[in-house]
Design goal:
Elements: H1 5-32, H2 36-41, H3 53-93, H4 99-108, H5 118-127, H6 135-158, H7 162-170, H8 175-186, H9 188-204, H10 207-212, H11 221-231, H12 236-271
Helix pairs in contact: 1-12, 3-6, 3-9, 3-11, 3-12, 6-9, 9-12, 11-12
């Protein structure tokens, strides 16, 4: 069977781009196993023996920060998803005064760059005496993370068949019961997708925690890695080992949520 030359060229280009995508990760893992001499003399090649003590040093330095990031990201994603579902459902399935205007006011916030709100948001957090506490992170994270989630969930909820809701109401079900027993089970994939995206944003955020958190015991992982870098300024092996350890929770999350993540993206793209 004759294969089109254009298909071969396209496949080769895609393979090259795929390999280039993984090169930074492979280099990071390679650098994490080097001691100081190996890093200075043979930085870009694989060297032996592997310096496993880098991971021991990195774990002892950032383990507390990892747990802090787990708590911060966990509370944030639960808050964002709960409030987003409660806000998106009436906007999609109920009728009330100025519903469309309220919805467009909410999604208009998507057009405002988040960096423009940093200074007034810090002033608000400072006024409520939430600086140097996790409440100063959770409040803005949950409030800001809802906007995109409401936009996606409202479109998804609105696409569900109206006959299903009418039947539930005829059986005497209230709106909250319909949301919990009918809408939520049907929306597991899109809710999982939004949860993963929210965790990624919160876990990797650096600027807002840098502005709000001062105490070392409250710092998330992104700030902990910076202090770790200053501590090992001439020894990059533990530093890169810390980067690898910091990536492992997100890789594990994606492995377990990849199916729901792909289904949610495909489902939301078809219904929006």
């Amino acid at each position: 069977m004759k294969v089109d030359k254009g298909v071969w060229i396209r496949n080769i280009v895609l393979i090259i781009l795929g390999v280039l995508t993984f090169i930074p990760l492979l280099m990071l893992i390679n650098l994490s196993f080097k001691d100081a001499n190996q890093f200075n003399l043979h930085r870009w090649t694989v060297t032996f023996p592997f310096t496993l003590v880098n991971y021991k040093d990195a774990w002892s330095a950032i383990s507390d920060y990892i747990w802090n990031s787990f708590i911060i990201s966990g509370v944030t994603v639960i808050g964002v998803l709960v409030f987003s579902c409660l806000a998106a459902y009436p906007l999609a399935r109920m009728s009330f005064f100025m519903k469309e205007q309220i919805y467009f006011l909410i999604i208009a916030l998507l057009m405002i760059p988040s960096v423009l709100s940093l200074v007034p948001l810090f002033g608000l957090v400072n006024k409520f005496h939430l600086v140097d506490s996790w409440l100063g992170l959770w409040g803005p994270y949950i409030a800001g993370g809802q906007v995109f989630c409401i936009f996606v969930l409202r479109s998804f909820f609105a696409s569900l068949p109206e006959e299903m809701f009418e039947a539930a109401r005829l059986d005497g079900a209230g709106e909250l019961r319909i949301l919990l027993t009918i809408v939520m089970p049907l929306s597991k994939s899109i809710i999982s997708t939004l949860g993963v995206l929210n965790i990624l944003n919160t876990w990797n955020d650096y600027v807002w925690p840098l502005m709000v958190i001062n105490s070392a015991k409250l710092k998330p992982l992104t700030l902990g890695l910076v202090s770790f870098q200053q501590q090992f300024v001439t020894n990059y092996g533990p530093l890169f080992a810390g980067y690898v350890i910091a990536s492992i929770p997100l890789i594990i999350l994606f492995i377990f949520a990849s199916k729901q993540f792909a289904e949610g993206l495909a489902g939301s793209a078809m219904k929006m």
